[in-house]
Q: What sequence folds into this?
Protein backbone atom coordinates (compact mmCIF):
# COMPACT_ATOMS: atom_id res chain seq x y z
CA UNK A 1 0.00 0.00 0.00
CA UNK A 2 1.16 3.53 -0.81
CA UNK A 3 0.42 6.39 1.57
CA UNK A 4 1.19 10.07 1.65
CA UNK A 5 2.99 11.16 4.84
CA UNK A 6 3.26 14.73 6.13
CA UNK A 7 6.39 15.78 7.99
CA UNK A 8 7.07 18.51 10.53
CA UNK A 9 10.02 19.83 12.48
CA UNK A 10 13.11 17.69 12.18
CA UNK A 11 11.17 15.01 10.26
CA UNK A 12 10.89 17.50 7.40
CA UNK A 13 14.69 17.80 7.36
CA UNK A 14 15.08 14.01 7.45
CA UNK A 15 12.59 13.46 4.60
CA UNK A 16 13.93 16.40 2.64
CA UNK A 17 10.41 17.81 2.21
CA UNK A 18 7.09 18.48 3.90
CA UNK A 19 5.49 15.33 2.48
CA UNK A 20 6.61 12.03 1.02
CA UNK A 21 5.04 8.86 -0.37
CA UNK A 22 5.73 5.70 1.63
CA UNK A 23 5.24 2.11 0.50
CA UNK A 24 4.32 -0.36 3.25
CA UNK A 25 3.66 -4.09 3.56
CA UNK A 26 0.46 -4.22 5.56
CA UNK A 27 -1.78 -1.53 7.00
CA UNK A 28 -0.68 -0.62 10.51
CA UNK A 29 1.24 2.27 12.02
CA UNK A 30 3.98 -0.15 13.12
CA UNK A 31 4.50 -1.28 9.51
CA UNK A 32 4.59 2.32 8.33
CA UNK A 33 7.26 3.12 10.93
CA UNK A 34 9.29 0.09 9.81
CA UNK A 35 9.12 1.20 6.18
CA UNK A 36 10.02 4.81 7.00
CA UNK A 37 12.96 3.80 9.20
CA UNK A 38 14.31 1.62 6.41
CA UNK A 39 14.24 4.49 3.92
CA UNK A 40 15.16 7.22 6.44
CA UNK A 41 17.40 5.61 9.11
CA UNK A 42 17.92 9.01 10.80
CA UNK A 43 14.40 8.62 12.24
CA UNK A 44 15.85 6.01 14.61
CA UNK A 45 18.18 8.63 16.12
CA UNK A 46 15.28 10.77 17.36
CA UNK A 47 14.43 10.77 21.06
CA UNK A 48 11.06 9.37 19.95
CA UNK A 49 8.44 10.00 17.30
CA UNK A 50 4.74 9.37 16.91
CA UNK A 51 2.47 8.85 13.95
CA UNK A 52 -0.77 10.80 13.68
CA UNK A 53 -3.68 9.45 11.64
CA UNK A 54 -6.32 12.02 10.67
CA UNK A 55 -4.76 14.46 13.17
CA UNK A 56 -5.02 12.11 16.17
CA UNK A 57 -2.09 10.33 17.82
CA UNK A 58 -2.09 6.70 16.66
CA UNK A 59 -0.96 3.55 18.46
CA UNK A 60 1.39 1.00 16.83
CA UNK A 61 -1.53 -1.29 15.99
CA UNK A 62 -3.69 1.48 14.48
CA UNK A 63 -5.01 0.70 11.01
CA UNK A 64 -4.06 3.02 8.16
CA UNK A 65 -6.10 3.59 5.00
CA UNK A 66 -4.75 5.07 1.77
CA UNK A 67 -7.09 8.06 2.12
CA UNK A 68 -6.04 8.93 5.70
CA UNK A 69 -4.07 12.05 6.48
CA UNK A 70 -0.89 10.65 8.01
CA UNK A 71 1.82 12.66 9.72
CA UNK A 72 5.10 11.96 11.46
CA UNK A 73 5.27 13.79 14.80
CA UNK A 74 8.82 14.17 16.16
CA UNK A 75 9.28 15.25 19.83
CA UNK A 76 7.15 18.37 20.32
CA UNK A 77 8.55 21.61 21.74
CA UNK A 78 5.84 24.25 21.74
CA UNK A 79 5.38 27.05 24.24
CA UNK B 1 -16.89 26.16 28.78
CA UNK B 2 -15.72 29.33 27.08
CA UNK B 3 -12.45 29.01 25.22
CA UNK B 4 -10.48 31.00 22.69
CA UNK B 5 -7.74 28.92 21.08
CA UNK B 6 -5.75 30.24 18.15
CA UNK B 7 -2.53 29.76 16.20
CA UNK B 8 -1.27 32.86 14.45
CA UNK B 9 1.76 34.18 12.58
CA UNK B 10 1.07 37.71 13.87
CA UNK B 11 2.44 39.16 17.13
CA UNK B 12 0.35 38.19 20.17
CA UNK B 13 -1.42 40.85 22.20
CA UNK B 14 -1.24 40.44 25.98
CA UNK B 15 -3.88 43.00 26.87
CA UNK B 16 -6.51 41.64 24.50
CA UNK B 17 -5.98 38.15 25.97
CA UNK B 18 -6.52 39.44 29.51
CA UNK B 19 -9.55 41.47 28.42
CA UNK B 20 -11.11 38.36 26.85
CA UNK B 21 -10.93 36.20 30.00
CA UNK B 22 -12.20 38.99 32.29
CA UNK B 23 -15.68 38.41 33.65
CA UNK B 24 -17.78 39.72 36.53
CA UNK B 25 -17.87 36.19 38.00
CA UNK B 26 -14.06 35.95 38.15
CA UNK B 27 -12.13 36.69 41.31
CA UNK B 28 -8.78 36.04 39.69
CA UNK B 29 -7.01 35.74 36.36
CA UNK B 30 -3.80 33.85 35.84
CA UNK B 31 -1.68 34.60 32.78
CA UNK B 32 1.34 32.74 31.48
CA UNK B 33 3.43 34.53 28.88
CA UNK B 34 6.16 32.54 27.18
CA UNK B 35 9.01 34.69 25.86
CA UNK B 36 12.02 34.00 23.65
CA UNK B 37 15.15 33.76 25.79
CA UNK B 38 18.56 34.95 24.60
CA UNK B 39 20.48 31.80 25.57
CA UNK B 40 20.19 28.02 25.94
CA UNK B 41 22.72 26.20 28.11
CA UNK B 42 25.01 29.20 27.92
CA UNK B 43 24.82 29.45 24.11
CA UNK B 44 23.57 32.66 22.57
CA UNK B 45 20.21 32.28 20.78
CA UNK B 46 19.63 34.67 17.88
CA UNK B 47 16.04 33.68 17.03
CA UNK B 48 13.47 30.88 17.23
CA UNK B 49 11.38 29.38 14.46
CA UNK B 50 8.02 27.85 15.41
CA UNK B 51 6.13 25.41 13.23
CA UNK B 52 2.74 23.78 13.92
CA UNK B 53 0.69 20.93 12.49
CA UNK B 54 -2.16 23.34 12.77
CA UNK B 55 -5.39 21.27 12.64
CA UNK B 56 -3.98 18.73 15.09
CA UNK B 57 -2.43 21.38 17.34
CA UNK B 58 -5.79 23.14 17.64
CA UNK B 59 -7.49 19.81 18.42
CA UNK B 60 -4.92 18.94 21.09
CA UNK B 61 -5.22 22.38 22.69
CA UNK B 62 -9.02 21.99 22.78
CA UNK B 63 -8.50 18.66 24.58
CA UNK B 64 -6.25 20.32 27.17
CA UNK B 65 -8.85 23.03 27.72
CA UNK B 66 -11.58 20.41 28.19
CA UNK B 67 -9.41 18.62 30.78
CA UNK B 68 -8.82 21.90 32.64
CA UNK B 69 -12.57 22.56 32.78
CA UNK B 70 -13.09 19.06 34.16
CA UNK B 71 -10.43 19.42 36.85
CA UNK B 72 -11.06 22.99 38.01
CA UNK B 73 -13.99 25.43 38.10
CA UNK B 74 -12.56 27.48 35.24
CA UNK B 75 -14.70 30.27 33.77
CA UNK B 76 -12.77 31.24 30.66
CA UNK B 77 -9.62 29.81 29.12
CA UNK B 78 -7.53 31.29 26.33
CA UNK B 79 -4.53 29.86 24.49
CA UNK B 80 -2.81 31.89 21.79
CA UNK B 81 0.25 30.36 20.12
CA UNK B 82 2.42 32.04 17.56
CA UNK B 83 4.20 30.43 14.61
CA UNK B 84 6.94 31.73 12.35
CA UNK B 85 10.23 33.44 13.13
CA UNK B 86 10.51 35.18 16.52
CA UNK B 87 13.32 37.34 17.85
CA UNK B 88 14.58 37.41 21.43
CA UNK B 89 11.96 38.99 23.71
CA UNK B 90 9.01 38.15 21.45
CA UNK B 91 6.05 36.10 22.70
CA UNK B 92 5.37 32.59 21.34
CA UNK B 93 2.54 31.75 23.75
CA UNK B 94 -0.05 33.37 26.00
CA UNK B 95 -2.32 31.38 28.30
CA UNK B 96 -4.99 33.17 30.32
CA UNK B 97 -7.40 31.56 32.77
CA UNK B 98 -10.16 33.15 34.82
CA UNK B 99 -11.76 31.53 37.87
CA UNK B 100 -13.86 32.58 40.84
CA UNK B 101 -10.91 31.90 43.15
CA UNK B 102 -7.15 32.14 42.67
CA UNK B 103 -6.09 28.58 43.53
CA UNK B 104 -7.93 27.08 40.58
CA UNK B 105 -6.63 29.79 38.24
CA UNK B 106 -2.99 29.17 39.23
CA UNK B 107 -3.30 25.39 38.98
CA UNK B 108 -5.22 25.34 35.71
CA UNK B 109 -2.85 27.79 34.04
CA UNK B 110 0.17 25.72 35.03
CA UNK B 111 -1.54 22.53 33.86
CA UNK B 112 -2.28 24.05 30.45
CA UNK B 113 1.28 25.19 29.69
CA UNK B 114 2.87 22.00 31.08
CA UNK B 115 0.54 19.76 29.05
CA UNK B 116 0.87 21.90 25.92
CA UNK B 117 4.62 21.35 26.01
CA UNK B 118 4.09 17.57 26.14
CA UNK B 119 1.28 16.91 23.68
CA UNK B 120 0.64 19.73 21.21
CA UNK B 121 2.30 19.25 17.80
CA UNK B 122 4.24 22.50 17.67
CA UNK B 123 8.00 22.56 17.16
CA UNK B 124 10.67 25.14 17.78
CA UNK B 125 14.05 25.43 16.14
CA UNK B 126 16.71 27.42 17.97
CA UNK B 127 19.05 29.44 15.79
CA UNK B 128 22.50 30.02 17.26
CA UNK B 129 25.33 32.03 15.76
CA UNK B 130 26.85 28.79 14.44
CA UNK B 131 23.82 26.72 13.40
CA UNK B 132 20.27 25.58 14.10
CA UNK B 133 18.76 22.86 16.32
CA UNK B 134 15.23 21.45 16.60
CA UNK B 135 14.55 21.50 20.35
CA UNK B 136 14.10 18.10 22.08
CA UNK B 137 14.48 16.13 18.83
CA UNK B 138 17.49 14.10 19.99
CA UNK B 139 18.19 12.45 23.36
A:
Amino acid sequence: MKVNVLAFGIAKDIFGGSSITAELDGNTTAELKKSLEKTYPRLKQLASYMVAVNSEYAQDNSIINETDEIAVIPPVSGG
Amino acid sequence: METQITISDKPLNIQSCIDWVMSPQSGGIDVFIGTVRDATKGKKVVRLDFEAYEPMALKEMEKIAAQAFEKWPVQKLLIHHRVGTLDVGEIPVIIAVSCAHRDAAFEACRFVIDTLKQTVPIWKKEAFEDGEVWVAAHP
